Amino acid sequence: MSLPIPFYFYLIPVLFLAFTFPNPSLGANNTVSCPLNITVLRVVGGGARPSVDSGTQCHYILQALHLLQADYLRRTGLFVPPLNASESCWDSFQSFINEFDPNFDVRSSCGLQTAWISQGCMNITTRQKFEATVPPAAIQAVQQNCNQSLDNNAPCALCTTKLSNLLSYLTGTTVGNVSDCRAYTSIYAASLSDQYGPTNPGTARCLFGLQFSSSDSSGKRRTVIISVVSVFCLLVLVVLVGVWAYLRLKKRNEAARWKSGVAGTELGLGSGLDSMNQSTTLIRFTFDDIKKATRNFSRDNIIGSGGYGNVYKGMLLDGSQVAFKRFKNCSVAGDASFTHEVEVIASVRHVNLVTLRGYCTATTNLEGHQRIIVTDLMENGSLYDHLFGSAKKNLSWPIRQKIALGTARGLAYLHYGAQPSIIHRDIKASNILLDHKFEAKVADFGLAKFNPEGMTHMSTRVAGTMGYVAPEYALYGQLTERSDVFSFGVVLLELLSGKKALQTDDDGQPSALTDFAWSLVRNGSALDVVEDGLPEPGPPEVLEKYVLVAVLCSHPQLYARPTMDQVVKMLETDESVPSLMERPIPFIAGRIDIERSALSNSGQLCSPTGYQAYTLQARRKSNSKEEEEEGSSVNVDHAFLLLLISPDRLKRCTQNMLKNLGDNALFVVLEPSSETGRCFVALSPDCTAEFPSPCLVLVWWGSRG
Question: Does 366 lie in the same domain as 421?
Answer without folding.
Answer: no
